[in-house]
Amino acid sequence: MPLFDVRDLVQYPQGANSTDVLINGVHFNLTALNLFSYKLYSNGTLSNSSKCYLTFDAFQPTMLMNGTFMNGTSCYAPYYDIRGRGSL
Predict the structure, then answer these.
(1) Distance (Å, rounded) from C-alpha 61 to C-alpha 52?
(2) 3-state secondary structure 49-62
């Protein structure tokens, strides 16, 4: 496992038409994503300068036309369980 995992900006997957993108089985409006400056990254996150959402595996947020996310899990919430780091 690398000490630092770099994420890359990726293209939005093509959806049903020119203004639709399909991310992890959920359709998003490309115009709304661009309006609120959201970008898709290779680590499965969708983020802009202030908000970040997980979009992989069971994480399937939806976005309203006003930029509000529903059923979204923040990137800042812990994903992995805390494990023991030392020994007794």
Answers:
(1) 11
(2) CCCEEECCCCCCCE
**For residues 7 and 45, is the Cβ–Cβ distance under 8 A?**
yes
pLDDT in tens, 60-88: 999 998 999 999 999 988 777 777 665 55
What 8-state DSSP symbol labels residue 72? -
φ, ψ (nearest 5 deg) of residue 40: -105, 130
Q: Which long-range contacts (CB under 8 A, 24 or more apart) does 11-19 make?
A: 11/40, 12/40
pLDDT in tens, 28-56: 999 999 999 999 999 999 999 899 999 99
